[in-house]
Amino acid sequence: MAKLTDLSGEGWPVASSQKNSTDFDEKLGTSPGVWTGGEMANPVPSACCVVLAAVVVVYAQRHSQQDSHIQYERVGADVTMKCGSMDWDAAVTWTANGTDIDDSHLNGSYLILKNVDLTQSGQYSCYEGSSWHLKYQTYLRVGTPPKEPVLMCRSNNYPKGFYCSWHLPSPTYIPNSFNISVIHGTREMVCEKDIFPKNRCHIRYLQLFLTVKYKVTLTVTNALGKNSTSLTFDEFAIVKPDPPESVVAKPVPNNPRRLEVAWQNPSSWPDPESFPLKFFLRYRPLILDQWQHVELLDGTSHTITDAYAGKEYIIQVAAKDNDIGTWSDWSVAVHATPWTEEPKHLTTEAQVTETTSASTSYFVPPPTTKICDWWAVRPWQCVGQLDWSWLLMVSSLFSEYAPSWGHERWGWVLGGHGGLRGSDVVGKGDTKQAVGEEHWV
Amino acid sequence: MAAADTPSATTLRRRDLCSRGIRLARKMRSDVADLLDIYVERQGLDASISVAAVEGVPAAAAEHWSEQTGTQRLLDNLAAYRAFRTLLAQMLEEQREQLGDADAALGRALAAVLLQVSAFAYHLEELLELESRGPPGDEGDGPPAPPRLSLFEQKLRGLGVLRELAQWAVRSVRDLRQLARPGPGAGSAPGLAEGQ
């Protein structure tokens, strides 16, 4: 068979330029008379045929010898690409994403990439010499084998079942596939993949109260390697409800130290009547770091009775099954400020009068001292400006409004050579300290 | 209308017995957990060791738990705790034979749990009486005499007994809570997975 003529070069073996029709025919392998070299035929259909033939030839050349595939290599590896079936000493041109590669990366016709990095991922093509016939093409993807995956299993809808979710601690930059197996005793169970998120599957409990543990194994595989991890647990250990929902906190009218808090069971908990939850409530004024805690064995509401008057509070709730598992994460935080009386405005110092009645005492700041609205601003901002005799008088005022406060709280207010020491505050009254037995963080 | 809303004396009594039973079961669970720690340590066992199902030990596992009636729950619980009463007594005897007075702590812990198991069984009998069902006879309810086992097999068997008892303690809390629920069919919880 005659060699195909290179149509990418200078001349098209058009009929009009052919002096010897036989030669042309041999070259093109066409039947005599089609390419009318000798006889002058109609030039327009001849040109069309030539163009069509050229297109066919180019297409054939491009797809006859090229290998187009994906090649995966590790970061840091040395990569050698061979230009298809070309000899080592053939003249070739390599491109990366359409850009010519410098000859310094070539060893004969081989392309050498040393210590590849992620930026070198892309399409690599090899063309023959000056003819630019595509001889080889590959898509290089630089990545890493997978590290040990992170697997977590949890039951937030006990006793219906549990789910497992996973992720890789660091990206591999190439496609990964995950396979999860669940063994319970001698039985293999099917973990049904969730539609969303896609790195999650769930299992329905077929039995409850089993002593036999579950073993979940996750294997991640990519073109550069594989890795796996396993978890073994019993039915109770992974029970962790979602946080309570719809937490609401509001002041109680005419009660400057109370806040009413209410919430709902997490909607994912399927049967709170048969499997009731208990709750942990924590709250603190924004200005302090230490939380107060209250554990509630039933009900979905609570009244805080020891709030600091006029101070904005942040409040959160967590949930746990009464008997098994661990506490949920904290709920979304809500803010609330206890009810306060309308503030009385002081106009000038001269209009402030002092009385000695314990029930109707007002504070009288020293003449050289800035007036502080005690209920509106942070009181410790005033402390540094006042002398101790004034503070002793103010103490009578506080003892009237906060008779249940102990010395430690008074120490908080007077902590006052330096100001406030919030860590000294200790829960009192109706509050309880956190019970530490159940995995508090 | 007020009369219809007022729970009957039987209902109140049931709720009271269920509440007390739940407290008993929780205390028992806590003590069994402590006993397990002592047992594993004293017997030189690995806490994570798997133990196959032991013959004669009532399994707490339930396949259609939510569909059980209250009476069935009580009967299952009573049968289990009567069996545990016998099993714990056997364990106590074995422990005394093996260690004598050398390990008083383990013996005391076993005896304490045995006492609680007996008390809980009696409590269940009271509940069954309330259901006008009456508890079944106690003869022949106990597990068969254990086969002649090696010392290590005895230890593993004991571990299996205690683990299963711990599961039963949790299940009993759930069962009694179902039983205490107001309304008809106290004992079948709606809306759970079909596997339950």
From TrEMBL, chain A:
Keywords from the UniProt entry: Cell membrane, Disulfide bond, Glycoprotein, GPI-anchor, Immunoglobulin domain, Lipoprotein, Membrane, Receptor, Repeat, Signal
Database matches in PROSITE patterns: FN3, HEMATOPO_REC_L_F3, IG_LIKE
BP-aspect Gene Ontology terms: negative regulation of neuron apoptotic process; positive regulation of cell population proliferation
Domain Ig-like: 76-126
Location, primary (coarse class): membrane
Region ranges (Disordered): 1-26
Localization in the cell: Cell membrane
Gene Ontology molecular functions: ciliary neurotrophic factor receptor activity; interleukin-11 binding; interleukin-11 receptor activity; signaling receptor binding
Presence of keyword Disulfide bond: yes
Entry GO terms, CC: apical plasma membrane; ciliary neurotrophic factor receptor complex; CNTFR-CLCF1 complex; external side of plasma membrane
Domain spans labelled Fibronectin type-III: 243-343
Sequence similarity: Belongs to the type I cytokine receptor family. Type 3 subfamily.
Name this polypeptide is given: Ciliary neurotrophic factor receptor subunit alpha
Organism field: Anser brachyrhynchus (Pink-footed goose)
Species lineage: Eukaryota, Metazoa, Chordata, Craniata, Vertebrata
TrEMBL record, chain B:
Cellular component per GO, a single term: extracellular space
Example GO molecular function: growth factor activity
Chief place where the protein resides: cytoplasm
GO biological process, one term: muscle organ morphogenesis
Keywords attached to this entry: Cytoplasm, Developmental protein, Differentiation, Growth factor, Neurogenesis
Annotated function: CNTF is a survival factor for various neuronal cell types. Seems to prevent the degeneration of motor axons after axotomy.
Family: Belongs to the CNTF family.
This protein's name: Ciliary neurotrophic factor
Organism annotation: Anser brachyrhynchus (Pink-footed goose)
Gene name of the record: CNTF
